[in-house]
Amino acid sequence: MHQNMKIAVVGGTGVAGKELLSILIQAQTPIENISVFASKNSAGSTINIEGYDVFVHTLEPKQLADFNIVFLAAGSAISRQIIEDHGIRGPIFIDKSSAFRMDEGVPLILAGTNDNALTRFDDRQIIASPNCAMTPFVPVLSSLLQFTSINHVDAVCLQSVSGAGKTGIDVLEQETRGLFTFKEPEENELFDRRIAFNLIPMIPTHGAMISDHTEEEWKVIDETHKILERSDFTISPTCIRTPTFHGHAASVTVHLKDDVSPDELRRALEQLNYVQLIDDPKQFQYPTHLDAIGEDDIFVGRIRNHPQSKKIISFYAVSDNLRIGAALNAYRIYDLIQQKIKSH
Ligand SMILES: NC(=O)c1ccc[n+]([C@@H]2O[C@H](COP(=O)([O-])OP(=O)(O)OC[C@H]3O[C@@H](n4cnc5c(N)ncnc54)[C@H](OP(=O)(O)O)[C@@H]3O)[C@@H](O)[C@H]2O)c1
Q: With CB atoms counted within 10 Å of each terminal CB, which end of the chain scores lower, N or C?
C-alpha cells in the first residue's frame, strides 16, 4: 500500500512530525518516497526514525510542487506561507496546524468521526487535522447526538506539555530536574508560570482573548461545531496545561434534551472505531494517561448521569495528543485519501 506516493513531511524534526514519520515507516511506506523538511536550524542533519537515518532538507519556495502528499507540521505561519507559494492544484496538503481549519473549503477531519466530510475540498487541496484538546471527547458527543440534541457541554481539557511542541517537553524536563537539585527554573517564552508540579489554566499563557476565552478555548468551540456539523449547542471549555509529558484528557459534562443512560452511551461507544471503554465502576476501572500513551484509540470511562437528572451525563476521556491529536489522525486522513483514489 502507498507504494508510489511521493510524500513530504514539513516539520519532520518536531514532536508531531517525528511521530508521523514513525507511523509512516511502521506502515511500510518506502523510505525513499519520504522527504523531510525543517527549519534552517536542522537542515543538513539526519534524524533516526525507526532505525533509519533520515536526511533533513531546508525548505525552499515552491519546492513541494512535485510531491503527491505534503504533511504540514511546522505551525500555522509556515502552513500559510507554503499554501501561498503553491497556489492552486499543487499536492494534497494534510495540515496539522490551525491555519485553515475553519475555512469553508477545507475539510476538518477527525478520523472515525466525520470521514464523510473529506469529499468537499476546494482547489487548494488542503485537509486539516483538528486541535488536540477536543479530540478525546468529540467522538463521544457524536455518539450522544445519535440519541438526542445537546444543549450545553462543559469541558475541562487537561493538556500535556508536548501539546506545545518539543520546547514544552524541554521546559518541563529542565524545570523538574532543576527543582530536584534546588535550582530556580529559568524563564522561558512558552509558559509564563512554572509548569513543573503546577497546572496553568490558560493556553496559551499569553495572547489575545475574545470574550475572556483563550485562543485554544475558541479552537475547541469552533472546531467541535465544525466536525459535528452543528452549532446549535453551547460549549464552555477550560484549557489547562498540566505537568505531564504526553496525553491529553478531558473531563466533560453534557446537558441533553432527553434522558440518556450510561449503558446506552457505552453501547453506542462500543460501535465506534478508534474508541475503547475502560469503564467498570464496580471494579474501579477507569482510563488514565498511561493507558493512552502510544496507543491508537481514545479511552473513555467514568460515564455517569447526574444524581438528579438523566439529561446530564459526564465522562472522562484521554488520548495520545501526538497520535490521535496529530500524527496518527493525519496518517488516517492520508489512508482515507488513498481509499478514495482507489475507488475512482
Ligand atoms: N504537539 C501536538 O500535540 C500537536 C497536536 C496537534 C497539532 N499540532 C500542530 O502540529 C504542528 C507542529 O507542532 P509540534 O508540536 O510538532 O511542534 P515542534 O515540536 O515545535 O516542531 C516544529 C517543527 O517545525 C519546524 N519548523 C520551524 N520553523 C520552520 C521553517 N521556517 N521551515 C520549515 N520547518 C520549520 C521545526 O524545525 P526545527 O527542528 O528545525 O526547528 C520542527 O520540525 C503545529 O502546527 C501544531 O499546532 C501539534
A: C
- The one-letter amino acid code at 294 reads G
Q: Compute the C-alpha angle 216/71/117, nearest 5°.
A: 70
Q: Do residue 96 and residue 205 come from a single domain?
A: no
Selection from 228, 251, 226 nearest residue 113 by Cα: 228
Give me the pLDDT at residue 62, please.
81
- Tell whether 150 and 249 lie within a shared domain: yes
Strand partners, 93: 70, 126
Q: Are 93 and 125 in contact (CB under 8 A)?
A: yes
153 lines ligand 1 (CB under 6 A): no
Whether residues 102 and 146 fall in one domain? no
190, 169 in Cβ contact below 8 A?
no
Same domain flag for 119 and 143: no
Distance 11 CA to ligand 1 centre (A): 5
Q: Ligand 1 centre and the CA of 151: distance in Å?
A: 36
pLDDT of residue 16: 98
In terms of pTM, does the model score above 0.85? yes
Same domain (yes/no): 197, 149? yes
Q: Residues 118, 180: one domain?
A: no
Interatomic CA distance for residues 158 and 248, integer angstroms: 6
Q: Say if 344 falls within a structural domain.
A: no
Residue ID of nearest Cα to ligand 1 atom 11: 73
Q: Ligand 1: does its nearest atom lie under 6 Å from the Cβ of 171?
A: no
For residue 232, the tally of other CB atoms under 10 A from its CB is: 9
Q: Are residues 68 and 147 in the same domain?
A: no
Q: What is the 3-state secondary structure (H, E, C) of 255-267?
A: EECCCCCHHHHHH
Q: Are residues 159 and 208 in the same domain?
A: yes
Strand-pair category, 92-95 with 69-72:
parallel
What residue's CA is closest to ligand 1, atom 17? 165
Domain that holds residue 15: 7-130+326-339
pLDDT of residue 88: 67
Ligand 1 mutation pick, 36, 79, 96, max ligand atoms within 8 A of CB: 96
Q: CB of 38 closer than 6 A to ligand 1?
A: yes
Q: Which residues are catalytic?
A: 132, 248
DSSP state letter for 187 = P
